[in-house]
Structures are given as C-alpha cells and as structure tokens.
Design goal:
The complex is a heterodimer. Chain A is α+β, with helices and mostly antiparallel strands. Helix content of chain A is 44%, strand content 16%. Chain A is built from 21 helices and 16 strands. Chain B has five helices and five strands; from the N terminus they run E-H-E-H-E-H-E-H-E-H. Chain B is globular, with a radius of gyration of 13 Å. The chains are: A alpha+beta, B alpha/beta. Chain A binds chain B through residues 237, 240-241, 244, 247, 249-251, 253-255, 257-258, 260, and chain B through 77, 82, 85-86, 88-89, 92-93, 97-101, 111-112, 115-116, 119, 123.
C-alpha cells in the first residue's frame, strides 16, 4: 500500500494579465516519498497562488470559480507578505449586503480590513500531529481556515487546507496502527505495556498470547496472569519490583540488577491430568517510560527461553555423563581383572534374565519364584559391586533391588510392575554398554602403550590382586563409610586358599565381611564402653586337615544376639527345637535382624545365599558366638580326591 | 559534592575511591560500618553515599533508614552482593536510588557513579 497522502495540484494556472504583480501561480508540492515514515508538513500538498496588491475582488472571485479546490490566496506587496484571503473569507465578504459593490472593483486586500488574528504559519518540518494541534488552537471561527507552511530551506510559503491536514493525520494514524499491528504480530519477543496499576494494555504482541497460552490479557494485572504459573516467593518479589519500577526517583540502570524475573520458571497445567506439568522458562525485561514527572508505563519484554535452558541442562548432563564415564574408567582400572570379569559376566547374565521378562507375552507376568531369585541375584551383585567399589553399579543395582523388593511384597504381579523396573534396567544396560566401550578404549590404550616409546610410562593399575586383599580393602572402605574402625588381620595369601573353592569362598567371605562390618563391629565409643579396644579386629585363618579345608572367619564385635534371633525366627514361624536350629536360623531365606535397609546390608538376603553356594560345593558352615564379644564362622569344605591322596 | 563510601571491606572501599573520578565529586570519605557511617554523615553531610548492606554494627538497611530520616537528603547507591532479593527491595524501599551488584567492574562503577551524580543534581540534593 502507499503511505502517501497525496492531493497533487500540479498544473500551473495561467493567470489573468490583470494579476500583474508577484508570482501568480499555483504550485505543486514536492512528491511525498513512497516511504511510509513521513509525518511532517514537508509533503502536505499546498497552493502558492500569490496575488499582488492591485488584484481586484472580481479577479479573485474568478480565480475561486475556476479553481474550487483553492483554499485561498497569498497576498504580497512586492516582497512583503501581507496576508492570506481564504476562499471562505472571500465568500463571506462578498455575501454581505452590497458585498459585490464594495469588493469587486477594489483591490482584494481590502477584504483583510478588520481581520485581527495573525495568520498561522508553520515551518515545513513540523509534524502533522503538531500542525493539527496548532490549527485546533485557533479561535473557533478560524479552525477550518487554511494555514501557511514555510519551507524550511527556501523560506517560501504555500497555503494548505486544514481538511487536507486532517486527512493526512487520519491516514497517518491508520498507518501507524497498521504498522504497530504488523510489529506486534511479527516480533519474536513478547511485548506488552503495563500501567501504574500493573494492568496490561490492550495492545500486546502476538507472542505474548503464545507465551502465556491465553489471549484475554487485556486489563488483567501482570501478577494476576502469572499467579497460577509461578511460585509465591517469585510472585511476591515481582510485585515488589513492579512497585519499584514505577518510582521515578530511582535510576533506571541501577534497578535492573534486582529484577527478580530475569529468569523464571512457569508451570503450566497439562491437559491430561495424569501427565506432569509443563515447565517453561521466561526472561522478563522491563523498560520504564518516563514523562517529565513520573513513570507513566513500563514496557515489558518477555522472552521464552525454555529451549535455551533445556539445552544448557542437556549440556550439563552430557558433561556429567562424560565425568561419570571417566570415573567409571578410573574405578575399573582399580579393580582386579579376574574379580571384575567375574562380576561383569554375572552382571550381564542378570540383565539378560530381566530383559527376557520384558519379552513375556501380553498378560503374562513372571512367577513369584522368578522375582525372588532375581532379587537375590541382584542383591548379591550389589554386594560385589560395593566390594569392588563400582559405585555406579552399586547405586543402580540398589535402585533395581528396591523395585524388586516391592514386587516381591506385592500380592499380585502385573505388567505395570514390570514396567516399573524398566528404567533401572535400562540404566544398567547403558552402564553395561559404557563398560564395553570403556574396555574397548582401554584395549586401544593398551595397544598404544605397547609401542616401545611408551612402555615404561604405561600406568599399572593399583588395586586388589586377589580375595585377601579385596577383603582387606572392603573392610577399610566400610570402616570409613560406616564411621567405624576395624583392622583386617590374616597371615594368608590367595595362593594358600583352595583354588577349586575360590568362587564359593569369594562369595561367602565377602558376605561375612560385610555382615561383620554392619552388624558385628561396634562404633568406637560403644567398644570403649564395653572395655574393648576401640579398633575392631577381623581375622581370617586356614587350617589344613587330611580330607577337608577349615576356614575360620571371626570378628570381635557384637556377636550374635540370640534373643533377637529367637524372636525374629519365631516371628517368621521357624521351629527352634534345638540349639543348632537357632544357630542355623540365621541362614534361612529372608532372615535379617538389621533395623534399616542400607545399600550395604540388611535386606535379609545374604546368609541364605551363602548356605546355598556352600551346600552346592559340598561344604558346611557353623557359627560360634558370644554376645557382646565375638562372632566366628567355621567353614568346612571338602578336599578333592587328588588332594586327599596327596 | 561529597561522597561517603560505606563498606566493611577496605579493599572494596579503596576500589570505589580509586575509581571515582567524577569532576563533581570533590571529597571522598570512608566508613567501615553503619555507626561510623552515620558519624561521618552528620559531620560532613555528603550528597552522595554508596552503601554496603551487610556490615557489622548497624547494617546497611538501618543506616539507610537513619540517613533518610536525617533531614539531609542524599542520593544513595547500594553496592552489595545480591544475596537476597528481599533485602535489595527493602533497601530500595528505604530510599536507596539504585543497586550495583558486587562484584562490579570499574566501568560499571563509573557508570553507576555518573548516574548517581545526575540523580543528585536532578533531585536537587543540595549542591
């Protein structure tokens, strides 16, 4: 569209010879530029019909008849500006009684007799708005009179009709509204204006509607709009800040730092009540609009920075994952390879078993036994992870164990229960994948390290080299984690232990060591009170017999609390006919006297697993204990026939 | 004009004093806590004050309040870490005319001081 306010009068009227003096012409104004931004009198069309002092009223009348649009003429005496006779004034003059007789034959200038109000002259760079105001300021009778525009550069006059000015002003307003609408519809920022009562003005950018997901903002206050979306503290802070914004005594730049809405989280209800709320992040910026004495309005710019924030979070998570990965590598490097391999292969097996559960046909759920055995598997794995100090595995397995525990306790198993363990399982799968990748990298690292130049520099992982050192490490580690002090004492080396029973010993001794640390060894103050050495002692011995191995594991802690065991066993409905029944009760499935479940011990799984493994290997375990003094386990394992012969 | 710099850290006070090069500011005073600040304020009647919020003895808010009630108008700029929005708002509500967040750069300080001087002139805080 054209933004031009045009009413071109381009032809130069050939004036009668009788208009002898001055520059007698009607002149076009400069063309308005196509650019929509013009808004001064520069391009308002006008007329430069100039009359000399001797032009008569009749000649003037002829001029107005020929050019009905001519608003008036400018009178000059030589170069001296005399005044303007408007068409309206001319007709008013000659309509009087004897008007024609008085004015026709006389010089037109006579018509100006008695006109007292000075002619309105405006410089050409005045804005349309100012011109309208100046014209309207004139006495009521003169409001519709034409006015003069003096060219800023040449000093020349042209006469403009007030109606033309109104037309220009109207078009300009329409244009501005249209531009404003275009701007408000196309800016990517949310723009709105609030008044002193914090009410939102009628005009706001389209994006504002999108941001708040509503379009009925007009006349609501900003805090009303935000109330359901933000927390109370932020809302109160914002309310206080809005008050500050309208205080004219404050310095614009120096109140920006305390804007509490520089970045806020807004919670939107989800259409589906079961789904979580959606969180959007907004950045608010406030610009104060000053009049001379006050802050009349505040322009609010709102940016939806959700994507930016989420991206930053993602980046942070990726960085954290990379960090985790590094930690994982470091942990793996610390672990003795054979223990690690054993752990990882069992870890993989357990994951596969769980994976199979997800493949069960629709409507079929796993049996209680499956869940129970899975739970025990996971529990054992967790113990091993803890022992190997694979904290990532330990944490993830603990979580999975928690969920399996719930499933174990549930009266009926459904597919939704299975779905609940899926996330943990996926985490573990990811971990497994990470380890595979890490191993690959380590393999490459190994290859690289084997090149002659770097052989010497290849780091040797420091870590337990076998079961004995593993136990020692574990006890030290648990001492720290449990805030207890204990020493592991043994004269044994791994090579002294029966190789054919390494697996089962590994499993048993780790369980026993963990139990000793959790249930057995007391805290230093308790030990001191009992008259014991504040440092606990855990011992491991091996005695050789002709046809069997005897392994003794002992701690000088609490000892077994037979009263507690008895009540727990009765609670579980065990029959306790003999002393031996009581001793063996602690090996029953689900038996535990620990009060709390921790990631270290206390879920009531452990000793029953030991017994299982031991029985499979043809062995036995016998506890000896004195309450408050010690607890020892005698483990008997058969020698193979070859060993017996030897 | 006279400027009073109130901060319990000598380093911050020196940093402010060193960076104040506004031609209107003829004299700079320092105070390390609210009580000392009021003493200087009543002796010198500075038109400009920069004020830390957390200080031993009388804190910034209390000090602001007292200056506001003193009958000697001054343009006060709070220069403080933005630990709590509430305190910042309160400072502004008690008559501070702006807030500069610690840590600040010399440029930020100079701009803020220019704003402060302008504020004092516009608001007819004595000359």
């Amino acid at each position: 569209m054209s933004g031009r306010v045009t009413h071109p009068v381009k032809d130069t009227t050939q004036l009668d010879n009788s208009l002898r003096q001055g520059k007698n012409q009607t002149v076009a104004t400069k063309d308005a530029p196509d650019d929509v931004a013009y808004s001064t009198l520069e391009h308002l069309p006008g007329f430069t019909t100039i009359l000399g002092m001797d032009a008569t009223g009749e000649e003037l009348g002829r001029l107005f008849t020929e050019q009905p649009v001519l608003p008036g003429v400018i009178l000059f005496d030589q170069d001296r500006f005399i005044g303007v006779i408007s068409q309206a004034h001319y007709y008013k003059s000659i309509s009087r009684v004897f008007g024609r007789e008085i004015y026709y034959r006389r010089p037109a200038v006579v018509m100006l007799d008695g006109v007292t109000d000075p002619q309105l002259i405006l410089p050409s760079d005045s804005s349309i708005q100012t011109a309208v105001e100046k014209c309207l300021d004139r006495p009521a009778d003169f409001v519709y009179e034409p006015f003069l525009v003096q060219d800023r550069l040449t000093g020349g006059y042209r006469l403009c009709a007030f109606q033309m000015l109104l037309l220009a002003s109207t078009q300009l307003t329409a244009l501005r509204n249209q531009q404003m609408e275009q701007i408000l519809n196309s800016v990517t920022d949310g723009l709105l204006v609030i008044d002193k009562n914090f009410r939102i003005g009628g005009e706001y950018s389209k994006i504002v509607g999108k941001i708040f997901e509503r379009n009925d903002l007009r006349d609501l206050t900003l805090t009303e709009v935000l109330e359901p979306l933000i927390d109370n503290t932020t809302r109160e802070q914002l309310q206080d800040y809005l008050k500050i914004l309208f205080d004219p005594k404050l310095i614009d730049r120096l109140i920006k730092p305390i804007n509490p809405a520089k970045q806020i989280a807004a919670r939107f209800p989800s259409p589906d009540p079961l789904q979580e709320q959606r969180v959007k992040h907004f950045a608010f910026n406030f610009e104060r609009i000053r009049t001379q004495t006050e802050i009349s309005q505040v322009l609010v710019r709102i940016e939806d920075i959700t994507q930016r924030i989420n991206l930053a979070k993602e980046l942070e998570q990726q960085e954290a994952a990379a960090e985790d990965r590094l930690q994982l590598v470091m942990q793996i490097l610390q672990v003795e390879p054979s223990s690690l391999n054993r752990f990882l292969s069992r870890f993989g097996e357990a994951l596969d078993v769980i994976g199979k559960l997800f493949e069960l046909p629709e409507g079929l759920s796993p049996s209680r036994e499956t869940i129970h055995s899975l739970f025990r598997q996971v529990h054992t794995l967790k113990g091993e992870a803890s022992l190997l100090q694979l904290t990532f595995h330990e944490r993830a397995l603990h979580q999975l164990e928690d969920q399996l525990e719930k499933m174990r306790a549930a009266s009926q198993l459904g597919t939704s229960d299975l779905a609940a363990i899926r996330p943990s399982w996926e985490t573990l799968q990811k971990l497994s994948e990470q380890i595979r990748q890490t191993f690959d990298q380590l393999k490459n690292f190994g290859t690289a390290a084997k090149t002659p130049a770097t052989t010497a520099a290849a780091p040797v992982p420091a870590g337990p080299t076998g079961l004995v050192e593993t136990l020692s490490r574990m006890i030290t580690d648990l001492s720290e984690r449990l805030g207890k002090s204990a020493t592991f004492h043994t004269a044994l080396k791994d090579s002294d232990l029966p190789t054919e029973h390494m697996d089962v010993l590994h499993e048993i001794l780790i369980h026993l060591a963990r139990n000793s640390m959790v249930h057995g060894i007391e805290k230093a103050d308790v030990r001191t009170a009992r008259g014991k050495n504040p440092h606990g002692l855990i011992q491991l011995e091996l005695r050789s017999h002709p046809d069997y191995h005897e392994v003794i594991f002992q701690d000088d802690g609490n000892g077994l609390d037979y009263d507690k065991i008895r009540s727990r066993a009765e609670q579980l409905g065990f029959s306790l006919a003999t002393e031996e029944d009581l001793r063996q009760a602690i090996f029953a499935p689900g038996f535990s006297t620990a009060d709390k479940v921790t990631d270290i011990a206390g879920r009531g799984v452990g000793l029953d697993i030991i017994l299982n493994s031991l029985q499979t290997a043809g062995g036995r375990i016998i506890p000896y204990s004195q309450a408050g003094a010690y607890c020892a386990f005698q483990i008997l394992l058969p020698k193979t026939s070859a060993q017996v012969v030897a | 004009m006279k400027l009073l710099v109130v901060d319990d850290s000598l380093i911050i006070r020196s940093a402010i004093e060193r960076n104040v090069r506004h031609p209107e500011i003829k004299q700079v005073f320092q105070a390390e806590n609210g009580v000392a600040a009021l003493q200087v304020f009543y002796e010198q009647h500075p038109e400009l004050v920069t004020m830390d919020l957390t200080m031993p003895h009388l804190d910034g808010i209390g000090c602001l309040q007292e200056i506001q009630n003193s009958g000697f108008p001054a343009s006060i700029l709070v220069i403080s870490a933005l630990n709590s929005h509430r305190t910042a708002m309160e400072a502004v509500a008690r008559g501070a005319c702006g807030f500069l967040v610690k840590p600040f750069t010399p440029t930020e300080l100079i701009e803020a001081m220019n704003d402060l001087v302008l504020h004092a002139q516009e608001n007819g805080v004595r000359s």
